[in-house]
Amino acid sequence: MAGPGAPCDPCAPAAVWKRHIVRQLRHRDRTQKALFLELVPAYNNLLEKAELLAKFSEKLKSEPKDTISTRHEDWREEVSGTGPDQVSSPASLRVKWQQEKKGLQLVCGEMAYQVVKKSAALDTLQSQLEERQDRLEALQACVVQLQEARAQQSRQLEERQAENAAQREAYETLLQQAAHQEAALRRLQEEARDLLEQLVQRKARAAAERNLRNERRERANQALVSQELKKAAKRTVSISEIPNTLEDGTKEETVALAPAALPEFSESETCEKWKRPFSFKKRRGHSVGGAPEQRYQSIPVCVSAQIPSQAQDVLDAHLSEVNAVCFGPNSSLLATGGADRLIHLWNVVGGRLEANQTLEGAGGSVTSVDFDPSGSQVLAATYNQAAQLWKVGETQSKETLSGHKDKVTAAKFKLTRHQAVTGSRDRTVKEWDLGRAYCSRTINVLSYCNDVVCGDHIIISGHNDQKIRFWDSRGPHCIQVIPVQGRVTSLHLSYDQLHLLSCSRDNTLKAIDLRISNIRQVFRADGFKCSSDWTKAVFSPDRSYALAGSSNGDLYIWDVNTGKLETSLQGPHCTAVNAVAWCFSGNHVVSVDQGRKVVLWH
């Protein structure tokens, strides 16, 4: 096979194998010559000595004995080194020469055997060498193929890198365009809000002017009617001036009624009737053109919340992970829900948690728990595609709100009685009439809903697509969208309904001012990490602090006004904290984790 440097002409293969054969022959010559370098000179020396001895024996046969003996002595002296005193006979020399010849023959035979043995070993080595050369050629061919594949992959890698660079540039361009478009959208939304406010103000002024004109017109009409009535009251009316003959032949007397004899119409009543102009006023808590809404009584507002400093009570409250926790409006009743499909009610007494009641009937893992503002009902979202309603004091579920097609992640009461809102992973938000367990409205959304909160006439939902959406209960469409970084895991509305706290998977909390629909503060800290898509964060009752639990089991508290970390609490939690709750009185905090623990802080 041709090597990497072989020429590319058609005669190249023949030249290559010819050179290969020549190279192999030269190599064999060198190896065999090295083996015979010592053997051949020794064998030549032996042959020379044998020839010398043969010639010497022939000369001895042809010459006289005296000459032979003299020469033999000389030769013996020369060859064997013996002196004249040591004389041997030709017969002894012949015997000795025959012995030496036999020895040389034995040596030659042994050397021939060694030559044969070495030749066999040489053949074996030659075959091994050929095998290794064949293997080397195969490996070289494989190396050439691998080099070609490597070069091809290198070219593909360069092409992919160029494509990635182009796509990265295009992506950065798209990001910049998206940022510009979002900024333009925000400006347009702000302009739209300003225009809407101006339109509302103009309509209000026009309505006020129209009402004023109507009132003036009504007053003028009332004054005119009053004058006409006064004139009619002063006028004398004659009933009849011609006498009429009765049946009995007598005449009917003419009677003139004086003004005092007229029926008295109350001027005040008449004017009051006309002084009632038509006006429409929308009263808070009443639906348009319908019956007044039944609202819960207001909850007392906490003046100052107390920052917890230590754990007072630790319980293994559930059989598995605890997902939700919520305080009742009286701050002494607590509800916890977990993956064991149970909801436990606890009484907070003297800094301890005492078991009150266990609510059964949830068809799946409990993901959210909420008390109604009166504290008489508990609403829970479950993984069995429904929400459950309990009455405090009853262990079995009162109503089941079914209609979702996937896990229900959030369930909250509205401020209006017998109404609630649920959010699900089926990309819908539903409003419920609890009196009839009927879904009164379904809102379709483009992303999973992880949490919902409710205001007077507003529903706020947090989603997996990193957006917070606002819905008007009286309108069909989304009225506003606020984008945030990271998937939204929880929402919490302040008690004055002016600020919203969101927690997201980018390990930050955000305080949103609803009056200007803008993010006011972003809370982050070293070590704080949002552990799951259902991690809950809350405001303190006075909205001075923001509280959330981390994946390392610590609790983090930030100052809402400054945005700085106030403190972090390290306690009995050994796993990620799923949810926290701050009681309405501001004295206690409760946290639950993935390790079945419920911790009361003071």
From TrEMBL:
<dbReference type="InterPro" id="IPR001680">
    <property type="entry name" value="WD40_rpt"/>
</dbReference>
<feature type="domain" description="Autophagy-related protein 16">
    <location>
        <begin position="20"/>
        <end position="211"/>
    </location>
</feature>
<keyword id="KW-0853">WD repeat</keyword>
<feature type="repeat" description="WD">
    <location>
        <begin position="539"/>
        <end position="568"/>
    </location>
</feature>
<dbReference type="InterPro" id="IPR045160">
    <property type="entry name" value="ATG16"/>
</dbReference>
<comment type="function">
    <text>May play a role in regulating epithelial homeostasis in an ATG16L1-dependent manner.</text>
</comment>
<dbReference type="InterPro" id="IPR015943">
    <property type="entry name" value="WD40/YVTN_repeat-like_dom_sf"/>
</dbReference>
<dbReference type="GO" id="GO:0000045">
    <property type="term" value="P:autophagosome assembly"/>
</dbReference>
<dbReference type="InterPro" id="IPR019775">
    <property type="entry name" value="WD40_repeat_CS"/>
</dbReference>
<dbReference type="GO" id="GO:0005829">
    <property type="term" value="C:cytosol"/>
</dbReference>
<keyword id="KW-0677">Repeat</keyword>
<keyword id="KW-0963">Cytoplasm</keyword>
<feature type="repeat" description="WD">
    <location>
        <begin position="359"/>
        <end position="400"/>
    </location>
</feature>
<dbReference type="InterPro" id="IPR020472">
    <property type="entry name" value="WD40_PAC1"/>
</dbReference>
<keyword id="KW-0813">Transport</keyword>
<keyword id="KW-0175">Coiled coil</keyword>
<feature type="region of interest" description="Disordered">
    <location>
        <begin position="63"/>
        <end position="91"/>
    </location>
</feature>
<dbReference type="InterPro" id="IPR013923">
    <property type="entry name" value="Autophagy-rel_prot_16_dom"/>
</dbReference>
<keyword id="KW-0653">Protein transport</keyword>
<dbReference type="GO" id="GO:0015031">
    <property type="term" value="P:protein transport"/>
</dbReference>
<feature type="repeat" description="WD">
    <location>
        <begin position="315"/>
        <end position="356"/>
    </location>
</feature>
<feature type="compositionally biased region" description="Basic and acidic residues">
    <location>
        <begin position="63"/>
        <end position="79"/>
    </location>
</feature>
<dbReference type="InterPro" id="IPR036322">
    <property type="entry name" value="WD40_repeat_dom_sf"/>
</dbReference>
<dbReference type="GO" id="GO:0034274">
    <property type="term" value="C:Atg12-Atg5-Atg16 complex"/>
</dbReference>
<comment type="similarity">
    <text>Belongs to the WD repeat ATG16 family.</text>
</comment>
<feature type="repeat" description="WD">
    <location>
        <begin position="401"/>
        <end position="442"/>
    </location>
</feature>
<protein>
    <recommendedName>
        <fullName>Protein Atg16l2</fullName>
    </recommendedName>
</protein>
<dbReference type="Pfam" id="PF08614">
    <property type="entry name" value="ATG16"/>
</dbReference>
<feature type="coiled-coil region">
    <location>
        <begin position="122"/>
        <end position="209"/>
    </location>
</feature>
<dbReference type="Pfam" id="PF00400">
    <property type="entry name" value="WD40"/>
</dbReference>
